[in-house]
Amino acid sequence: MALMDIRVYGDPVLETPTLAVKEVDESIRTLVADMYETMKAAPGIGLAAPQVGVSKRLCLVDLSAGAEPDQLMILINPEIIAEEGYQKEEEGCLSFPGVFGHVERPMNVTVRYTDLDGDEKEIEGDELLARALCHEIDHLDGMVFINRMSPLKRRLVLKTIRKLQRDGQWEHRPGEGSEERA
Q1: Which of 41, 82, 101, 125 is the Cys-Cys partner for 149 at CB 3.0 to 4.6 Å?
Q2: Known catalytic residue at 15
């Protein structure tokens, strides 16, 4: 298992819709293992394949941030099939280090996905789990969380990022032995 580079905003892979995973094979299992190690090391509660430079419809969610390995959810080709309610809470993102903002999300969601064994499943999530599922699935659709912020907050965030880029302080977060995968 290897840590992978976490891409930061400005990398086009973050705003490009991903391709469906056609087969759950050993390359997907290896990618999941590397993504899990990367997510734990960051640390984070979710990681989508585009965040490590891979344009595949695959994401991980672990509300324990790696503290409880049995809490890991591996979602291949996930899609939201039902949502209800409303919540507006603060979110962050591993691809936006140090950036936080309030984002509107559904209070409850149902997601259909394929697991690592190739079986189709559904999961229902509410509150933080619903928010994490929506956030990661947004990544798979080429949507970043600042696009769900108010226009004023988004402008302020983008202004800060542009300044950090000019100062050479907004670059990918390197992992050890990382590699790009398609």
Answers
A1: 101
A2: no
Please count the CA atoms within 13 angstroms of the CA of 82 that sit on its side-chain side.
7
- Give the domains, in start order, of the chain with CATH numbers: 12-166 (3.90.45.10)
Model confidence pLDDT, tens digit, residues 143-167: 999 999 999 999 999 999 988 888 8
Q: Is the pTM of this model over 0.70?
A: yes
Structure tokens at 107: 């209070």
C-alpha distances (whole Å) from 137 to each of 8, 56, 151 are 17, 11, 22
- Mean pLDDT for the chain? 92
- As a dihedral over the C-alpha atoms of residue 93, residue 141, residue 81, residue 147, rounded to 10 degrees, the angle is 50
d(CA 125, CA 108): 6
Catalytic residue, from 68, 136, 176, 179: name it.
136
